[in-house]
Design a protein that fits this description.
By secondary structure, the chain is an alpha/beta fold. It folds into three domains: 6-128 and 298-326, NAD(P)-binding Rossmann-like Domain (Rossmann fold, 3-Layer(aba) Sandwich); 133-294, Dihydrodipicolinate Reductase, domain 2 (2-Layer Sandwich); 339-423, ACT domain (Alpha-Beta Plaits), CATH 3.30.70. Helices cover 33% and strands 27% of the residues. It starts with 5 loop residues before the first strand and ends with a strand. The relative contact order is 0.13. The chain binds NADP nicotinamide-adenine-dinucleotide phosphate and L-homoserine (HSE). NADP nicotinamide-adenine-dinucleotide phosphate binds at residues 11-17, 36-39, 42, 58, 73-75, 79, 97-99, 124-125, 128, 181-182, 184-185, 296-297, 301.
Amino acid sequence: MENKKIKIGLIGLGTVGSGVYKTLRNNNLVEFKKIAVRDKSKPRNIDSLDMSLLTENAEEIVNDPEIQIVVELVGGIHPAFDLIKTALKNGKHIVTANKELLAKNGEELFNVAEENNCVVLYEAAIAGGIPIIMPIKTILAGNKINKIEAILNGTTNYILTKMDMQGAPYEDVLKESQMLGYAEADPTGDVEGYDAAYKITTLATIAFRKRIKVDKVYREGISKIRTADMKAANELGYKIKLIASAKLDKNGNADVRVHPMLVSKKSTLAHIDYVTNAVSLSGYPIGDITLSGPGAGEFPTASSVIGDILAIAAEIGTTDYLLPMMRCHHHETANMIDIEDTINKYYLSINAKNNKGVIGKIGTICADNNISLASIVQKCVDQDNTANITVITELCREKDLRRTIDVIEQDEFINKVESIIRVQTLN
Ligand code: NAP
Ligand code: HSE
């Protein structure tokens, strides 16, 4: 009997590719025709892998006339971008988990896809195993979404949780998350917030139906977070999380950013721990919803990739225009608000000389620069007679805060402003 299974070409058999292959290899709708890797001789944790499927030349996949779906699980821009473009021009549908490529080159990719009547699906690129792209594009399509607050990086959430709960050293936990397959090939992308910035760029683009430019997304990572800040945050009723957020103001301007944040223990995101991710959305008419689940790792990510593969495979041969709701329909570019013009609350940790009047001085400098304080506490005096002072501000403009920090740091009694972390504002 003729084999009617849809043929897939898989590019990349690393953490995610292995999970996809192991889960889907006995499926009765699709089959793997070829799998491209960098090094065929590399040992792989896959039982009875059919070595005859492997190639070191991904061009063989994107140019194979029998392959209808190309699954790109390599990551990065080169060679992924060119491979996907060639595949699209050859009429193949694409499934990818490549958030960097989507954030930087998504517009061109979706245009090429449309010109060739193909689809590009990317559920796994945002929040790993959590279904979020398809829900926004389908069941939430009637909503006007104006706010997203999310934990979108499993590696950093894992590191922050372990530092906070177990006092584990940063470097050790980073190594652990690399071994668990959560981190990117270069983990700088995770810890410095690039990965979350790529994800919020695409997520906000589809939620707001306006293109967000990734180079205008404000980004800060977690590498400067100290255990002393976590302890202070806990005492004040907060957890420190790497938050990716996107807001549309009433004039349609977008404030999109990634940075560590003191999150109130009363909020859902404060309780999203380890590799778990969560996306909180506010929209009309839905109101507020939060979706959470595993944000990285072999099988949770494979789950999203496989969902996309099967969604395409189920429609191939049944229609001339597959999955219309999953396509890219917007062309407007969002006007972005500069971080300096945003309004936030801040946590400051200041190391000062243990002199009389230093707290009063900090209060005066803040007041002179338009900043009200919600609290100011001298935590302890160290053996070298320096005092650690913790400040929480009321809402103020970032520009004013930065000017204030410059003035505080010039004061003779101040050694250093050791940490500046934004504080979540609850509605
Ligand atoms: P990975 O473990 O580093 O695997 C990358 C794979 O790509 C390897 O199999 C490698 O081959 C192959 N490869 C590299 N260059 C190639 C080339 N020129 N031609 C063919 N194959 C090539 O990466 P991963 O963690 O699976 O991530 C893959 C993608 O999924 C990335 O875009 C990543 O951001 C995304 N993602 C990952 C996760 C996660 O939890 N890991 C979650 C969501 C999304 P060799 O095996 O021979 O080295
Ligand atoms: N490195 C990413 C993370 C993989 O830790 O979240 C999932 O996209």
